[in-house]
Each structure stands twice: as structure tokens, then as C-alpha cells.
UniProtKB/TrEMBL annotation:
It comes from Mycobacterium kiyosense. Coiled coil: none annotated. This is Phage capsid-like C-terminal domain-containing protein. It is found in: Virion. Signal peptide: none annotated.
Length: 278
């Protein structure tokens, strides 16, 4: 087979990779939206943690002040490779118009988003990073079924007990629907318990915090996430390349995207897992 300009070549420039893949991925992935996203050019990323503060004490006038040191540890995050693959027509690959590139980028982002969120809200992932289910998080029992929103205040209080603040809740679409169906009164009321954000009419708010939805979260679970303690490290070496040999007989092009992403949870006890126990 004769070599062509598209065989084994990059379909997107580095700038286009950022605009069509990385940026939309960070904007659409729920895991990225509730985390602190940190780019790196290193193989490993170290997050320093002050596990014990220096000690202060009331001191008499003229007395020596006792010196103390903080206890500093670190969380090591090693980004793992996340790869997506899609197939497009050779005509689309040869079309350099922005609309054609957007179609390619959208397909890659959807594939990468599913894998990224599945790893983040999962336990351990083969060849990938460990997710929320692998943590020794704080657990809140919401009862047999979702009947009220008291658990949300309990989750916020649990986070405050360990000196942090929740910034978002995340649930599955089915669980979010169950919560959105709760009414102020058991009978005679159609007013939902969930609040709304006037600046984003389609969003949901629970106890003042945004409620995100992701199919990657198991039904019956709501995660309370403190953004400052959920670190998403992205290695800035994403690539999008094409190959015509695999689908030669159908005149199609395989488009592969790879990037490296890792998760770091600096305070597992600050992550709140709310679940029902039917």
C-alpha cells in the first residue's frame, strides 16, 4: 500500500489537540469539574500535605517561645495512559475545515470522558488510577430510601468536622431523579425540595452545593467532593494520530487519541460517601 500524508500522521496540531480534545474533556468530564485540574510535564506529580500543624501555645511575657515543626507528607500521583479510538471516513480525515475537525474532536472527547469518569468514580482500574471507591472515605447513611435531604447537611457537617468544605455532590441520573422527585410535603405539594441556580436554570442544587450527575456513579450513592482535596493531574503530551492500514478495504481511517491522567486524593476522610441501605 502506498504511503499517504494521512498514513500514520497527526490529524490535529498540538494547538488543535488542546482546543478540540483536552479543553472539552475537562469541561464535560464530571470528574474534572469537581476536581482541581493540574497540568504537569513530569512523569510524577507530588502534592505536599501538612498532616500535623506546628503547635502554638499561650506564652508568658518575656518567656521563650517553644519551637515546633509541622509534619509534612506527600501524595504521589503518576498519570496513567488514557486512550480513545474512533473510525472516520477518509474523506473526513482529508477535510481540514473546522467543522470536520470538530466532529473528530467530539467523538474522541465522548470516548475519553466515559473512561475518565468510570475510573474516577470506580474502585481500582486495570492499568489506570484508583478511584473514589478505593478510599477510606467518610460514610453517611441516608436510610432505607431517599425521603429527605437531611443527609446533605450531615455530609457537609462531616466534612467540616475534618476541617474542610464540600464543593459539590455527584450522583447517578437515576438517583438524581429520585432526589428531584422529593416534595416539601408528603401530600398536597408539588414543590421540589431541590433548589435551583438562577444563573443556570437546568442545574440542581442541594444544601447550597451543585449536584452533578454521571452514569459512572452507582445508583443509591451520592458523593460529596471537596475540590481542594481531589487533584486531577494531566500530563501535557496528548496526541491524536491516524492510521489508514487497519481499515484499508473500507477506505476509513482509525483516529487514536492518547493522554495521561492521574488522581490524587489528599484527604480521604474529607470525601463523603452518602448511600442508602435498603
Amino acid at each position: 500500500m502506498a504511503l499517504t500524508t494521512s498514513s500514520g500522521a497527526s490529524i490535529l496540531t498540538p494547538e488543535e489537540v488542546g482546543a478540540l480534545v483536552i479543553r472539552p474533556l475537562m469541561e464535560t468530564s464530571v470528574a474534572a469539574q469537581v476536581s482541581t485540574v493540574v497540568p504537569t510535564n513530569s512523569h510524577d506529580f507530588r502534592v505536599p500535605i501538612v498532616s500535623a500543624d506546628p503547635t502554638a501555645a499561650w506564652t508568658a511575657e518575656g518567656a521563650e517561645i517553644t519551637a515546633s515543626d509541622p509534619t509534612i507528607t506527600e501524595v504521589l500521583v503518576t498519570p496513567k495512559k488514557l486512550a480513545g479510538l474512533t473510525v472516520i471516513s477518509n474523506e473526513l480525515a482529508a477535510d481540514s475545515s473546522p467543522a470536520a475537525l470538530q466532529v473528530v474532536g467530539d467523538g474522541l472527547v465522548r470516548d475519553l470522558k466515559r473512561k475518565l469518569d468510570a475510573a474516577y468514580f470506580g474502585n481500582t482500574t486495570t492499568n489506570g488510577p484508583a478511584g473514589l471507591l478505593s478510599l477510606s472515605s467518610t460514610v453517611i447513611d441516608a436510610g432505607d430510601t431517599w425521603t429527605n435531604l437531611d443527609w446533605a447537611e450531615a455530609a457537609k457537617s462531616a466534612a467540616e468536622t475534618v476541617h474542610t468544605t464540600l464543593t459539590a455532590f455527584v450522583a447517578s441520573p437515576a438517583t438524581a431523579l429520585a432526589l428531584a422527585s422529593l416534595k416539601e410535603l408528603t401530600t398536597g405539594s408539588n414543590k421540589s425540595l431541590l433548589a435551583s441556580d438562577p444563573t443556570q436554570p437546568t442545574s440542581r442544587v442541594i444544601a447550597g452545593l451543585p449536584l452533578y450527575t454521571s452514569p459512572a456513579v452507582a445508583d443509591g450513592i451520592v458523593w460529596g467532593i471537596p475540590q481542594s482535596h481531589s487533584i486531577m493531574v494531566i500530563r501535557q503530551d496528548a496526541t491524536v494520530v491516524t492510521d489508514t492500514s487497519v481499515y484499508f478495504t473500507s477506505d476509513r481511517v482509525a483516529v487514536r487519541s492518547t493522554l495521561r491522567i492521574g488522581f490524587g486524593f489528599t484527604y480521604p476522610a474529607a470525601v463523603i460517601k452518602v448511600n442508602t441501605t435498603p
